[in-house]
Specification:
Blueprint: E1 5-7, E2 13-16, E3 22-26, H1 29-32, H2 45-50, H3 68-82, E4 86-90, H4 93-96, H5 106-121, E5 125-131, H6 137-140, H7 149-165, E6 171-176, H8 178-188, H9 198-222, E7 227-233, E8 237-239, H10 244-259, H11 262-265, H12 272-277, H13 289-293, E9 299-303, E10 308-310, H14 333-346, E11 352-356, E12 366-367, E13 370-371, H15 374-392, E14 397-403, E15 422-424, E16 431-433, H16 435-446, E17 448-451
Parallel strand pairs: 3-4, 3-14, 4-5, 5-6, 6-7, 7-9, 8-10, 9-11, 11-14
Antiparallel strand pairs: 1-2, 2-17, 12-13, 15-16
The chain binds 5-hydroxymethyl-3,4-dihydroxypiperidine.
The site of 5-hydroxymethyl-3,4-dihydroxypiperidine has 7 residues, from loops.
Length: 452
């Protein structure tokens, strides 16, 4: 037992995090802001995607969401009350550069300017992400991320944000989960813009990474003292059976899902055999691209939710009784600790921030006006324990941001799954912290918690 683990008399152990460990929460623009046309905002691909019947499970959209655009002062006050150190949010490109390229909309930037000031005056570090999937529709009309020009447009938009916020923001993140942007949006079609082409997905993946690199150059130039980050989601994969076919499938899915973005960012290039396996001709890669993509970053944002099993015939189903969340994702905390050690062993990572981790649960146990979400609380506690263990083993993890601050618009699932540690009543828009939020707040104040 180390000095940061203390056994208590009741048989539980107290885990204490390193001094300065960051405790906070995360959201994204489209999922919470609402106000789709306010102050000159233009439609994003998600506004368009939601307007097509059948795309979103409950037929909903982001028009109101949590109405955060109009309630950000109240929301920051709540985070302050909960004692959070940090808040990760994303900036809507469609507010800042409504046409995707060209004129900067000052009124759109003003919102983020006010938000950053509000956070700083509450003692909360702002962690803005430049792109969390809400591409301007006008750019999609010209090919979206399949078109190389989008990467350059992304860099110009980033520069406008850095010019305005770079005097106060200390960490800028370029992309959120480029795998999901490229795969769900261009290959599988279950996210905006809804294409179903592997060829488009591969082109999009390269242009997203190029966009990261080009935007990174603007961040370095415009805010030399700020840190540069990218957020990547990792889903550890295991073969469904020991068969050769399942092991080959696992190998390639693992390389497409878990190496495809982080390997190039850390200078290892695309996984060549998997690129061949999926038939990528690499025609999008131009001279100098891989150097731009692999310019050093200061921080890797890691998003983790679950592990998956790969089977060659796609027949795998979780055995009955496997603990899972309301979206059917397995609850398996040890995969998180294993992943964090793997990342640290494989890459030369300067620092890691857990930028998303959380789970949707039914939230149906109520005690008067309290929401007793013990299952979510257990998820967060057991996953933070894995983070603690990884830190003990030398993985440089600086903090943990729970996904999400609020129940919000869960993309193609609409408002069904509730990831929030704070409930949002979609009729009244009232915010009610759940038991998990109160536990997280209390744990933050002690920089640790008990675990049995
Ligand atoms: O809600 C999403 C978020 O936008 C990106 N990461 C995964 C979350 C849960 O699906």
């Amino acid at each position: 037992m180390s000095s940061s683990e203390i056994a208590s008399s009741e048989g539980s152990t107290r885990l204490t995090f390193p001094d300065g460990f960051i405790w906070g929460s995360a959201t994204s623009s489209f999922q919470i802001e609402g106000a789709p046309t306010t102050d000159g905002k233009s439609p994003s691909i998600w506004d368009t995607y939601c307007s097509v019947p059948g795309n979103i499970k409950d037929g909903s959209n982001g028009d109101v969401a949590c109405d955060h655009y109009n309630r950000y002062v109240e929301d920051v006050a709540l985070m302050r009350q909960l004692g959070f150190d940090a808040y990760r949010f994303s900036i809507a490109w469609t507010r800042v550069v409504p046409d995707g390229v060209g004129a900067v909309n000052s009124a759109g930037l003003d919102f983020y300017d006010r938000l950053v000031d509000e956070l700083l005056s509450a003692g909360i570090q702002p962690f803005p992400t430049m792109y969390h999937w809400d591409l301007p529709q006008s750019l999609e009309d010209n090919g979206g991320w399949v078109n190389r020009d989008t990467a350059y447009a992304f860099a110009d938009y980033t520069e406008a944000v850095v010019d305005r916020l770079g005097d106060r923001v200390k960490t800028f993140t370029t992309l959120n989960e480029p795998f999901v942007s490229a795969n769900h949006g261009y290959v599988v079609g279950e996210h905006a813009p809804g294409h179903t082409s592997m060829e488009m997905g591969l082109a999009a993946s390269h242009h997203l990474l190029l966009g990261h690199g080009l935007a990174g150059e603007r961040i370095r130039a415009g805010a030399p003292d700020a840190r540069l980050a990218i957020v990547i989601n990792f889903t550890p994969l295991e073969p469904a059976t020991d068969s050769e076919a399942d092991r080959v499938e696992t190998y390639h899915r693992n390389h497409l899902e878990n190496h495809w973005y982080s390997d190039p960012v850390f200078g290892l290039g695309y996984p060549e055999d998997t690129a061949d396996h999926v038939g990528w001709d690499r025609s999008e890669i131009q001279d100098g691209d891989m150097e731009i993509i692999s310019a050093p970053i200061d921080l890797l944002g890691v998003n983790f939710y679950t592990r998956e099993f790969a089977s060659a015939d796609d027949s795998f189903e979780l055995p009955e009784g496997t603990p899972q969340n309301t979206m059917g994702w397995e609850l398996h905390p040890p995969s998180f600790g294993k992943l964090l050690r793997w990342i640290n062993d494989r890459y030369d990572v300067p620092s890691i921030l857990i930028t998303e981790n959380g789970c949707p649960m039914p939230d149906n146990i109520r005690d008067e006006n309290r929401i007793v979400d013990d299952d979510r609380l257990d998820y967060i506690r057991s996953h933070m324990a894995q983070v603690h263990g990884a830190i003990e083993d030398g993985v440089p993890i600086e903090g943990y941001l729970v996904w999400s601050l609020f129940d919000n618009f869960e993309w193609a699932w609409g408002y069904g799954p509730t990831f929030g540690i704070v409930e949002v009543n979609y009729e009244t828009l009232e915010r009610i912290p759940k038991k998990s939020a109160l536990w997280f707040s209390e744990s933050k104040s002690q920089n640790g918690f008990e675990i049995s």
